[in-house]
Write a structure and sequence with these properties.
Distance between the termini: 33 Å
Order of helices and strands: HEHEEHEEHHEHEHEEHEH
Number of helices: 9
């Protein structure tokens, strides 16, 4: 095993099994013991769920909704296209590996089974459903050593394959940089599953500085660009990034998707702990 990968796994395992992650907390609604909210009764719902005391106060029938307290089905989906092969502080692929390790060990600690898939132009199984540390190590080894350079991306293919392969209602962690979202449509997938998106970025991708004459290579298509990275070019680029992210956040909110952004110069654990509360 790669020395750098071994350091990531040892550090992550120590942090996860020493942190108090808490009990399962899911947006999936079902029978359980943790009260979530009150809502107005809708035609067709079980009348046994009506809270008659609250209903009498508001003069309308209300029902109690609870968090689903059951074994969760977790699917970890790292998006490994060419743009993951980049980083001014560290490669985004290294950060992606650490995040997947955190999620995997958290599943093991909470005794929730998890599966993992590697996504780009297609969806391929990374690890089968498991609750073992060995599966986390295997998943991270495959992600860390995956040849992402030159890999293109199709969100349309990813979504259709996820719908076909994940039939049981699950929590899906979708992890990528989401820099090109032209064909991103999570509406159907989010109606069937609970999706949590983790956006990975390098600070330079959002706030580049002047470099003068440059020769750049697209890590997904291998296309080259020769030009000048000056104030004017950077201003146009930043505008495109802001527009991309505005559309992305808007889409997530419409689909009811929780999301968070983590940079390559940050420790991902504190942000992920807040996300999972």
């Amino acid at each position: 095993m790669n020395y750098h990968l071994k350091k990531i796994l040892i550090k992550t395992r120590r942090n996860i099994f020493s942190e108090i992650i808490g009990n399962n907390s899911s947006l999936l609604k079902g029978e359980g013991y943790d009260f979530m909210e009150l809502k107005e009764y809708e035609y067709g719902e079980d009348v046994k769920k009506i809270d008659w005391v609250i209903s009498a106060k508001f003069r309308k029938p209300y029902v109690k909704v609870f968090h689903a307290q059951k074994e969760l089905n977790i699917n970890i989906i790292p998006i490994l296209n060419g743009s993951m092969y980049f980083g001014s502080k560290r490669f985004k692929q290294d950060l992606l590996t650490e995040i997947c390790a955190i999620l995997g060990y958290s599943c093991v600690k909470q005794s929730d089974p998890f599966s993992s898939f590697i996504a780009n132009e297609e969806l391929q199984l990374c690890t089968k459903k498991s609750k073992r540390n060995f599966s986390v190590d295997l998943m991270c080894d495959k992600i860390f050593n995956y040849p992402s350079l030159g890999q293109k991306l199709s969100y349309q293919n990813i979504c259709s394959e996820l719908l076909r392969k994940i039939r049981k209602k699950s929590i899906i962690f979708l992890i990528g940089d989401f820099l090109n979202i032209k064909d991103l449509d999570l509406r159907v997938l989010s109606r069937k599953h609970e999706i949590i998106s983790i956006i990975l970025r390098d600070p330079f991708e959002e706030n580049p500085f002047e470099l003068g004459n440059v020769n750049l290579v697209d890590p997904s298509t291998n296309k080259t660009f020769e030009g000048i990275l000056d104030k004017s070019t950077i201003s146009k680029y930043k505008k495109e990034i802001k527009n991309n992210d505005h559309l992305l956040y808007e889409h997530f909110q419409k689909c009811g998707i929780k999301f968070i952004k983590i940079y390559t110069n940050e420790d991902p654990l504190p942000k992920l702990l807040r996300l999972m509360k």
